[in-house]
Specification:
Strand content: 35-45%
Number of strands: 31
Shape: globular
Helix content: under 10%
Distance between the termini: 28 Å
Structural class: mainly beta
Strand order of the largest sheet: 1-19-18-17-16
Length: 449
């Protein structure tokens, strides 16, 4: 989710490829009438089953205790929350069990896991790096690092301060170190932690044998033509595909394709923009063979009801690009076909591939639009094949699915207000994915299946 709306285009016009609806076919799906679902009720497609729900519990049970991102390792799920993070035992996905909750406040608390190390993104000035630092003089934001070898008692290891904090982060592992790409909006000239100029990317090195000595290893100047701009807004999400030496960055005003053969010295391959349709380039997902990239637009910053008949179907949506001869080419757009009620915040958000060999299928969160499963094998004609959603959240607060990812036969959804949901899809199209087993899963560090 974007805590600030777009400050300015992340890139100047030079070197960009402008794309828009006029150069690509759009999905032919029609928007349905608003679903008449009462608050708290659940609606699913015939091929989706709501397997389990684990409500938020104290100290993360208030409306401001927003559930955020997910990561997985073996039989555990890690769930970020504005109040800290939680660990769940998912050895039986139909009955997830809370193992521990760590109170460590800080927006966003997006989470990744590598070995025994858990990393959190903090995009809110705090009094210091420690969990009990409070808001204080608001002089620190960045990454926090924990040792989770003991799942019942995670241990704080250290932290790295980064300019403008860390809205999200992306891991690029190597043998001896874990490189972490930090995405953050900025600059904010009046801020103690986000003064101009703001580099669009910061790379933190976490030595695996001494994570407490983590440090900023590089601040690559990806766009030297910008100069020292006070208005560059940075990147929102970066998805790395280390096996392919590629990364795709959603940099607020642009989409960027990167060569990461040298993870500390990424090179820009291509920048694209879509000023006609995209407001906030939010996230990116490669297909399995890295011949396509799906970029999402978080129109309205995640707080607005953009899944209505008054919002064009190319806005607040996904754009499907084919990668042809090393260059991205726009093919089509996808947006959920179910119109949401007027009070429901809804827009494209975090998702992952469902590992079906030979097909391009994705599961994705849409806030109060719920969870959508969609097929983009035909890039120009993507279509929804399954869904899950609830009725409007009663209080009108920010609500719905923040992240929805497929892991070892089930879909896990981190719901902002309702906790952890587990879904199962039974469909001939997706059933082959049940044979794919993963040892771990961090959605912004893609691995082939």
């Amino acid at each position: 989710m974007c805590t600030t709306l777009l400050l300015a285009s992340a890139c100047s016009p030079g070197g960009q490829q402008e794309t828009g609806a006029s150069t690509a076919e759009t999905t032919s799906q029609e928007t349905s009438a608003p679903a008449d679902i009462a608050a708290g009720d659940v609606m699913t497609s015939d091929n989706v089953t709501h397997v389990a729900n684990v409500p938020k519990t104290a100290p993360f049970d208030g409306e401001d205790d927003v559930n955020t991102d997910l990561a997985f390792q073996e039989n555990y799920a890690y769930v970020g929350n504005f109040g800290g993070f939680a660990i769940y035992d998912i050895s039986d996905p139909t009955e997830p069990k809370a193992v521990s909750q760590v109170a460590c406040p800080g927006q966003q608390n997006d989470v990744t896991i590598h070995g025994d190390l858990l990393i959190l993104s903090i995009d809110e000035p705090r009094g210091g790096p420690e969990c009990d630092s409070g808001s204080g003089d608001r002089s620190w934001e960045g990454l926090r690092i924990f040792d989770v070898a003991d799942k019942a008692s995670p241990r704080y290891v250290g932290a790295v301060q980064t300019d403008c904090g860390s809205h999200t982060h992306t891991m690029v592992p190597s043998e001896e170190s874990l490189y972490v790409y930090v995405s953050s909006p900025g600059p904010e000239p009046e801020s103690q932690t986000c003064a101009p100029p703001h580099e669009l990317l910061q790379i933190v090195e976490v030595p695996l044998d001494s994570p407490e000595s983590a440090r900023i290893a590089a601040k690559p100047n990806l766009f030297p033509e910008l100069g020292s701009s006070d208005y560059s807004s940075g990147c929102h999400d970066i998805t790395a595909y280390p096996e392919k030496d590629l990364a795709a960055a959603a940099c607020f005003g642009d989409g960027v394709l990167l060569d990461i053969a040298d993870p500390v010295d990424p090179k820009v391959i291509q920048r694209i923009s879509d000023k006609q349709n995209f407001q906030i380039w939010h996230s990116a997902t490669f297909n399995n063979d890295a011949t396509k990239v799906v970029f999402g637009d978080e129109l309205g910053g995640g707080t607005q009801p953009t899944c209505d008949r008054n919002t064009p179907r190319t806005k607040g949506a996904d754009a499907v690009y084919d990668l042809v001869d090393g260059q991205l080419q726009l093919r089509g757009y996808f947006k959920i076909p179910r119109e949401q009620q007027g009070e429901e915040n809804c827009v494209a958000h975090n998702g992952s591939l469902i590992p079906v060999p030979g097909k391009d299928i994705m599961v994705q969160s849409w806030y109060q639009g719920g969870v959508s499963i969609w097929d983009f094998t035909d890039s120009a004609n993507p279509k929804e094949i399954g869904y899950f959603e609830r009725g409007p959240f009663e209080s009108g607060a920010l609500a719905g699915s923040w992240s929805a990812y497929y892991y070892n036969g089930y879909i896990y959804s981190s719901d902002i207000q309702e906790g952890l949901d587990v879904l199962e899809i039974d469909d001939p199209l997706t059933d082959p994915a049940k044979q794919v087993k993963m040892d771990d899963f961090n959605v912004q560090t893609q691995k082939s299946y």
